[in-house]
Amino acid sequence: MTAWVWVLVAVCGAAGAVGRFAVAQALAARTSATFPLGTFVVNSVGAFLAGSAAGAHLDGAVRVVLVGGFLGAFTTFSTWMVEAHRVGHAHHRRATVVYVGTTLVVGTVAAGVGWFLAALLS
Hints:
mainly alpha
């Protein structure tokens, strides 16, 4: 990879992190603290976009910059797990199961739909 690809991954990664933070903050201000809707939405949208990138057969630097840079920072496994632990630790066990389960199901479906639509359009 060229130096420009590294720079673009860094810049797009920063943009993805800021985007994740902005979405999470905007949704947190409008929803209950029990269900971490911001991270759920970000991870679902990110799964759709990553699936779309796969379905469009993006290769090389474009894939690395978009998926590895932007989407790598936009989506977050660690925050998902910390929030699941926080919800469970607050004795909201049902909400924890719903959060983890729906994230897995919706994320998988979103990636598949994104892949299918991108493949259909390309």
